Amino acid sequence: MRYSGLQVIKQALTGHKGWKPAWRDPEPKPNYDIIIIGGGGHGLATAYYLAKEFGQKRIAVLEKGWIGGGNVGRNTTIIRSNYLLDGNEPFYEFSLKLWEGLEQDFNYNAMISQRGILNLIHSDAQRDAFIRRGNAMLLNGADAEMLTTEQIKARYPYLNTEDARFPIKGGLAQHRGGTVRHDAVAWGYARGADKLGVDIIQNCEVTGFRQENGRCVGVETSRGYIGAGKIGCAVAGSSSRLMSKVDMRLPMESHVLQAFVSEGLKPVMPGVVTFGAGHFYCSQSDKGGLVFGGDLDGYNSYAQRGNLPVVEDVCEGGMAIFPAFGRARLLRMWGGIMDMSMDGSPIIDRTPIDGLYFNGGWCYGGFKATPASGFCFAHLLARDEPHPTATAYRFNRFETGHMIDEKGMGNQPNLH
Ligand SMILES: Cc1cc2nc3c(=O)[nH]c(=O)nc-3n(C[C@H](O)[C@H](O)[C@H](O)COP(=O)(O)OP(=O)(O)OC[C@H]3O[C@@H](n4cnc5c(N)ncnc54)[C@H](O)[C@@H]3O)c2cc1C
After folding, report:
1. I want to staple 314 with a disulfide (CB 3.0 to 4.6 A). Which of 27, 84, 286, 294 is the partner?
2. Contact between 279 and 294 (Cβ < 8 Å)
3. What is the pLDDT of residue 1?
4. Residue 363 C-alpha to ligand 1 middle, in angstroms?
């Protein structure tokens, strides 16, 4: 069924009896051409593009829980392409362009809203750094604009720009950035992939890999053995655990990141704003809740919940720039597992084992990457060569020293 305005009217007039399930619930087949492990945004997008753009058939996505239960449904929904480095910026701009046509492409309302993102500047040195980043964005075909304090005040009159501890001296804006309803992205890709014949198998945990003559030929799962021509791993925060089953130690650590939502308020935040002197960012959902977050909890964990010191830290950051928000009540908070890489940038590459491919290391920026990550991983799986925008995302950059260290933090995953 194709979704459209006419369809909504037709269903409304006939008691909404004609809606079909958005995707099937098939039993696993004994083997597939390609298996994708992980039914998050990246795994589902990979399966979708494999079928749609690369003509692949007999594809399955194996998800240990339910679609949308991982980070794709836990993030703070921000999309942008405001990166500095050559290895990153073309990839994230490719992703933003895919977001711009995505709803028409997969025929699903993902509430993509290009309401803009603004990075606040609090010092002259920071202004220099942001001008450099803005120029790198423009050179890569993205949009970027430096805003003055007056321009920012006109849009966000309640920001304390002058007598605050961190006065606001301007900002770097990307007007094409914004927010997307995160779980709708999982559902849209799942529905689109299912329509193209992909089997989405939920409640199917991969517990091991079967190898024959140095080649990966299938996976052991909680629902039995499934054979495959090629296997792509896209399990985000569980990457180290999954790859340890083939004795691969990844240049990666798993950390908790928390997100917060306030009670619903009338529209007050027109776009996304990030604090430049601490780690805090905020937007407002279409339901009215202030959606905000900050730093990692700072220790290795596979728990999907966080601790109170970071709640305090995030709220302090928020109060430093948005004192008025102190009157809003916190409604919900939760955590997700971050696959933090050693340089803060992702990996989309073959593994040393034939037939086994890897996608991970998204740190806390993987939601915006979902379309490009899926497209580039599908490109690699189908053609055995990296997509032109993802050539830098190789395992061997940690051997050759070609790090893509956007923040210049060095190999400290918790700081990226
Ligand atoms: C609080 C928070 C805020 C964030 N904010 C942003 C943001 O604003 N913008 C942004 O760009 N990014 C953000 N991120 C990061 C982003 O959400 C992730 O980088 C991205 O979603 C990871 O990719 P994914 O969607 O495929 O992951 P997931 O949805 O986690 O998918 C991985 C899936 O693999 C499954 N899995 C794991 N092990 C197995 C197994 N053995 N067998 C089968 N299945 C398995 C899991 O159940 C899971 O469903 C945020 C993350 C969090 C937690």
Report:
1. 294
2. yes
3. 87
4. 9
pTM of the model: 0.97
Q: How far is the CA of 345 from the centre of ligand 1 (A)?
A: 15
Average pLDDT of the chain is 96
CATH architecture of 5-81+83-108+182-251+343-415: 3-Layer(bba) Sandwich (3.50)
Whole-number Å distance, alpha carbon 296 to ligand 1 midpoint, is 15
Tell me if 219 sits within 8 A of 37, measured CB to CB.
Answer: yes
pLDDT digits (tens, 9 = 90+) for 264-283: 999 999 999 999 999 999 99
Residues pairing with 62 in the sheet: 37, 201
- Our mutation pick for probing the ligand 1 site, out of 46, 75, 77, 281, counting the most ligand atoms within 8 A of Cβ, is 75
Contact residues of ligand 1, CB 6 A cut-off: 37-43, 62-65, 69-72, 74-78, 205-206, 234-238, 242, 257-259, 293, 336, 362, 364-368
Centre of ligand 1 from the C-alpha of residue 226, in Å: 24
Architecture of domain 117-178+253-341: 2-Layer Sandwich (3.30)
Residues 6+ apart with CB under 8 A from 4: none
Domain extents in the chain: 5-81+83-108+182-251+343-415, 117-178+253-341
